[in-house]
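Pasting as-is:
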Amino acid sequence: MMKNSKIDKNSPFNNLPDLPPKANLETADIFKAAIKANKLLAELKGFCQTLPNPELLLNTIVLQESKESNAIENIVTTQDELYKATLMGENIKNQAAKEVLQYRQAMYWALDELSTKGFITTNLLVGIMQKLRNTQEGIRRNSGTKLSNPINGLIVYTPPEGEEVIRKKLQALENFMNDDELSDLDPLVKMALIHYQFEAIHPFSDGNGRTGRILNILYLINQNLMGLPVLYLSKYIIENKNDYYRLLREVTEDENWHDWVLYVVNGIAETSATTLTKIKKILELKAQAESELKDKMAGGFTRELNDLLFSYPYIKIAVLEERGIAKRVAASQYLKKIVEFGWLQAFKIGREVYYINHKLVDVLSK
């Protein structure tokens, strides 16, 4: 494969070509991988549609995706710090946990915007980045942005420069995402192209990677391939991080679209399967808890209480009060009983008692 002679790693890639690329993206390998990925993704979507309260999964699955996506950018928090932060409102002290929760908020905000407008726009992407970073910054204006190897510091890529240039490339990407007549490629193949293109444009001073990973989910939902943002794709990227960055570079330097597309499509297949397994385990655990607690707690048990226990890995008395499940004294008694029956563990921070659904945490952390 010939090197792309147009690329100078130290100069802005202002002649980054628009999509679709001039490459054969309908090889037997890609076709076979896309069939498998579409089948597994459809199975995940169909299973979620059978759930009586699919929204209950979002707090747990989206929180995990948020954690892993931020970890790719070396924004690392522990499960413990993160779950405690979900209950702290505006009083979060751990900055990494705060940024993970901002990711989840950005995801929910983007889904609301997408459901209202029906298509993905540059302004939507800017809004996601602003929510992620809690900033009013927009498209990158300053010159001198360069991406370097974190180990040796060598420049590996210089993205396009100049707000007008960046906006034109984003507009072309927007057209490609929303106009199916521009390409008859499989949507999963298109998602791989879109992800590369957004990363190559690198339109913001920070937050590009996280915005791009939210864009993946939005595109799949907009293509009706998913109903809920439950695909746990960032974990796959973390586990194959070296390949991820290597293949992005190979598209830029060698025009190796084939291997990049295969990487993404195979990732969707693997992630769909593991996410489905994880959701089924959570639901099995939830059903087991409902059966046991219903017998043991008698009048103190409600399905709403059980739903709440599996919507938040960590919980506290105030959450039961806020949801109208019980007043403070009764809520405290309920949670203490659930501890006695082995479904929660209690621990104290300052004056506040937190209750951990340790069995749910075990499923999420595996």
